[in-house]
Amino acid sequence: MNATNRMRPKAYSYLRFSTPEQALGDSTRRQRQMAETYAANHDLDLDETLSFRDLGKSAYRGSNADDGRLGDFLRLLEEGVIPKGSFLLVENLDRISRDVVRKAVRTLEDIVEKGVTLVTLSDNRRYDLEILDQDPTAFLIIVLGFQRAHEESQIKSARLRAVWKNKRQNASKGNLLTSRVPSWLKVESGKIHPIPERVDLVKWMFNQRKGGSGTELIARTLNNRKEPTWGRSAFWHTSYIKKILSNPAVIGTLIPHEVITDPEAKTAKKTKRVPLDPILNYYPVIIPMDLWNEVAGVPTTQIKQVGNNIPKTILAGLACCPICGGRMHRVNKGSRSRPSLVCGRAKSKAGCNYKSIRIDELEPFLLSNALPVVLSSPPSSSQNLQEKIVQNQNNLEGVEGAIQNILENLRTSQSPTLIDHLGGLEAEKQDLIKLIRDQEVQRDNELGPVVNQRIDKALGLIKQDEKSIQEINLALRSLFKKIVIDYKTGYLRFVWQSGGETEEFYTLPQE
User: Fold this and answer.
1) What is the pLDDT of residues 319-377, one digit of tens each?
2) Which helix (H) or strand (E) segment is 69 a member of?
3) SS3 state at 141
4) Residues 373-413: pLDDT tens digits?
5) Residues 366, 488: one domain?
6) The Cα angle at residue 472 between residues 205 and 498, in degrees rounded to 5
7) Could you write out the three-class secondary structure of 331-352?
8) 3-state SS of the chain: helix, strand, coil percent to 5?
9) CATH number at residue 76
10) What is the Cα 431 distance to its own chain's centre?
């Protein structure tokens, strides 16, 4: 770059379109060419090392300014990387924002107050701090332009919601909602069909799970026999097995979702996906209902049940000490004594209080009184979990976009700062992928139909005349993380797998 170029004001091009499909059209080329022409005609140095592109990012709720590349532009202004006196070139004002007028104007003010001149290339209008303060006509044009853009987006949003509502209604009548289906299915000629070899594998997974194999063992078996995966992953993950085993699509059920928007949300994420009423018989049924109910009632972690590990109490692996929080173990001191529960730490003489709880007195109360009441009134699942998943998915998209932008910039400039930033973003990406995967597994375990089926199974087992300790224990462990035997207060505290706690009063017998 020569001395003359260094004295010319810097110009930066901001490109945005709201849907990825627009990338296949002329939007990018048109916006880029307009920026190059304007910079050449007005003696501006168009900076090609920093590109600001929000491809597939909407400006309707301001997400491009919150967590998109427009937000990056504003942050680089604050850090002094982009000098004052620079120009930001956009096709129209609606590329900056389609949010409500007051927020859209605020975004424009954030740009010009930092010493940047914004240029709309469609009409060659310039907007800076002086124009906003002293030219009422220009300000009125800005307001009207933002108002028009917001109203257009409102109309499009309403139409899109109506389209999806109609699609969901048609799906309940047997029509296709979307071409996206589970990996063991495919869409041909507008119809959903099973993929035989994959359906066989899903059936194998359910039968393995029914036989007591854990998801880790199932995944390891598939990897050992080099079973091809169904996606981009190089091997079978335990989390993916769990998703398949808890996916109601295997019994033909689709759970549609609706995107709910809160424009006044305090966080950058303003939308969340909310599950709607399930649509039965949408997919081909590949797993019988009795097998689904049986597997849905089995904990997702493997429980060894061989030899001496067969549970001898329905509270095996569940009962917890109210003092230290550790597991309580079954103790039987001989033929003349009666089995009881004791804190494992106290039993090992590692501290805590040695308090015996008679199993033959506690279990009848659980089976006849406490469990029927507790299981009939489960706490609601975590309301924030799905919102957190959607927020993290959007965070992941933002990180991936930032990575792509840095890779583009590194083609022309091997900046150590950018390279360090890239490494941090890659680490953040992997953390988000793992977090989303874990949250999805937790969410799948909290699906209403799955939890309700597990509750029904547990209630059915405890009502049987000949009760199976092993089956009841499995059913309870699929529903509860732990059951605290609080002999100090006389309460049993049930901590649910899906979040929340339930208490039931019980007066323990005095020794």
Assistant:
1) 999 988 888 888 887 777 789 999 888 887 777 888 889 998 899 989 988 899 888 87
2) helix 69-79
3) helix
4) 888 877 755 545 666 777 777 778 777 777 777 777 766 66
5) yes
6) 70
7) ECCCCCCCCEEEEHHHHCCCCC
8) 50, 15, 35
9) 3.40.50.1390
10) 13
What are the tens digits of pLDDT across the range 50-65? 555 443 344 334 443 4
Tally of CA atoms within 13 A in the half-sphere of 258 that contains its CB: 17
How many angstroms separate the CA atoms of 89 and 117, rounded? 9
* Domain-terminating residue out of 107, 126, 155: 155
Ordered strands of the 357-358 beta sheet: 328-331, 340-343, 357-358
Which two tokens mark 294?
């049986």
Strand partners, 125: 120
> Which residues lie below 8 Å from residue 500, measured CB to CB, with a gap of 6+?
378, 379, 380, 381, 382
Specify if 285 maps to a domain.
yes
Rounded distance between C-alpha atoms, residue 145 and residue 135, angstroms: 16
Separation CA 509–CA 511 (nearest Å): 6
* 497, 382 contact by CB (below 8 A): no
The amino acid that residue 83 corresponds to is: P
Is the domain of 251 the same as that of 320? no
Q: Which among 452, 145, 468, 481 has a CA at the least distance from the CA of 299?
A: 481
Domain harbouring 241, CATH code: 3.90.1750.20
Query: What sign does the dihedral 322-324-328-332 (CA atoms) show?
Result: negative
Q: Please, are residues 392 and 453 in contact by the beta-carbon 8 Å criterion?
A: no
Q: How far apart are CA 63 and CA 70, in angstroms?
A: 9
Q: Are residues 102 and 224 in the same domain?
A: no
Give one word for 478, left, alpha or beta, with left for phi > 0 and alpha for psi -120 to 50: alpha
- Where is the domain boundary, 302, 337, 369? 302
Which one-letter amino acid corresponds to residue 74? L
In a domain? residue 165: no
Yes or no: say if 54 and 69 are a contact pair by the CB < 8 Å rule.
Answer: yes
Sequence-ordered strand ranges (E) for 18-143: 45-46, 52-55, 87-90, 117-120, 125-127
SS3 labels along 375-437: HHCCCCCCCCHHHHHHHHHHHHHHHHHHHHHHHHHHCCCCCHHHHHHHHHHHHHHHHHHHHHH
Contact predicate 84/74, CB 8 Å: no
In angstroms, the CA 424 to CA 404 distance is: 13
Do residues 365 and 389 share a domain? Answer: no
